[in-house]
């Protein structure tokens, strides 16, 4: 039961890390895999804390949520009336903005950088190239890209919470059963 309490607290912390743009959900999955491996090494083959299927499903959910988060900025640009160039700008701007934001201001800088990068990338994409738009016309798709990215972050946070509660539930169920 002590392991479940510790995992629950660590899950809370890891989920909070997702909220500020750090890979807390991946850390949570790594903790789950480590617990499962340690159980096999320490307690023997018959001991199962989570099982490999819940851990694999958690990994799949994480991959899907990461892809969703990356794509939402580009999709937001398109839904906001943007061009393909704006979508590409939003995608790469969000990635680079997150990296630069992390370097400048660890923790909160990641999410701020990702949002600013998404906005700036979409804006630059809309204002350059053969279909270049004026600043006023480009602001709509850039803002829509940023809103899309926020939606992606919220979905990723939701996925982290589902993984946390799901693995904790499996762990407690196996302890009680």
How do the helices and strands line up, and which of them pair or pack?
Elements: H1 2-19, H2 24-42, H3 52-79, H4 84-104, H5 108-127, H6 135-176
Helix pairs in contact: 1-2, 1-6, 2-3, 2-6, 3-4, 3-6, 4-5, 4-6, 5-6
Number of H- or I-type helical stretches: 6
Total count of strands: 0
Structural class comes to mainly alpha
Summed up, the domain count is 1
Q: What is the radius of gyration?
A: 20 Å
SSE series: HHHHHH
Label the overall shape: elongated
Alpha carbon gap, first and last residue: 12 Å
Can you describe what's shown?
The chain is mainly alpha-helical and 177 residues long. It has one domain. It is built from 6 helices and no strands. Helix 3 packs antiparallel against helix 6. The chain is elongated. It starts with a helix and ends with a helix.
